[in-house]
Design a protein that fits this description.
With 272 residues, the protein is of the alpha/beta class. The chain contains twelve helices and 13 strands. It has a single domain, classed as Spore Coat Polysaccharide Biosynthesis Protein SpsA, Chain A (Alpha-Beta Complex), CATH 3.90.550.10. The strands form three sheets. Strands 1, 4, 5, 6, 8, 9, 10, 11 and 12 form a nine-stranded mixed beta sheet that branches. A two-stranded antiparallel sheet has the order 2-3. Strand 2 and strand 3 form a beta hairpin. The longest helix has 12 residues. The two termini are 32 Å apart.
């Protein structure tokens, strides 16, 4: 059976961006960048163009045609920018509202109408993923994720101490067997090399919505994608193919990330 053609991507942009809102006197932001950072809408932070323009360009380069932006109820600036100011030629952009910031799995549920039973990609709005990784998921036969090599991420802008907190993936025969959140140094030391981590880059089918509804909130009170994935594996017998990928992902988590990301993206072009 060949792969089901997939042209839909969901971008999770409904978070509050509290870490980005936190003022950092050491971060060299210009006035416009600081003003947008104050709103917490990381996707609109200008890196020559809004950061999300580059994320969308990578999706278009990877062959996606339709994008569902999951936004919060107060994110009118995103809706205005992509609904009125910018007229993409390669992408059709739709919006879904996550009423409350209750976690990534809850955000996925907000995109159920957009998915309409079709397979779809899920990515973060504050990460710039290589187009080749996004294309690999589009061409996959079934559900899966990109398993990023932990050491390869160090060649991007993400500091080692942040990478050390990323969820690590245990893979057996090419398929995800376990997700370990916030691994301890002892757990990391016991892992076979290379170590693979999740950067929240998934291909789902409609079964994920049942899984998102089935899970309980995490200790911090949010509904999380890793819990939904584990539920899909356990209750539905779903399998997630893990595609190893040895390239960096650019991460726009807080204000200190902005100058380095801007430097690393200086030669990138926008083509929506």
């Amino acid at each position: 059976m060949g792969a089901v053609e997939m042209d839909k991507a969901v971008i999770l942009a409904g978070g509050l961006g509290t870490r980005m809102q936190k003022v950092d006197s050491q971060a060299a932001l210009d006035g416009e960048q600081a003003a947008v950072a104050d709103t917490g809408m990381k996707g609109l932070i200008p890196i020559g163009r809004p950061f999300l323009d580059f994320v969308l360009t990578a999706l278009a380069d990877a062959g996606y045609k339709r994008v569902g932006l999951v936004i919060g109820p107060g994110h009118d600036a995103i809706r205005t920018y992509y609904g009125e100011k910018v007229k993409p030629k390669r992408l059709a952009i739709e919006f879904a509202v996550q009423p409350k910031p209750l976690g990534t799995a809850n955000a996925v549920l907000a995109a159920e109408s957009f998915a309409a039973g079709d397979p779809f990609l899920v990515i973060n709005s504050d990460n710039h993923y290589p187009a080749d990784a996004l294309k690999a998921l589009r061409e996959l036969d079934g559900c899966g994720l990109i398993a990023f090599e932990r050491d390869a991420l160090l060649s991007g802008n993400i500091p080692a101490e942040r990478i050390a907190r990323f969820a690590i993936l245990q893979v057996e025969d090419g398929y995800l067997s376990r997700i370990i959140e916030k691994p301890s140094p002892e757990v990391l030391a016991a892992q076979a090399r290379p170590i693979y981590v999740s950067m929240n880059c998934w291909r789902f089918d409609s079964g994920i919505f049942q899984a998102c509804r089935a899970i309980a909130p995490s200790p911090r009170g949010e509904y999380e994608i890793p819990d939904a994935v584990e539920s899909a594996v356990r209750e539905q017998g779903q399998r997630f193919e893990a595609i190893p990928f040895g390239a960096p992902v650019l991460d726009l988590t807080n204000r200190a990330d902005v100058p380095m990301v801007a430097e690393m993206m200086a030669e990138m072009e926008v083509d929506l």
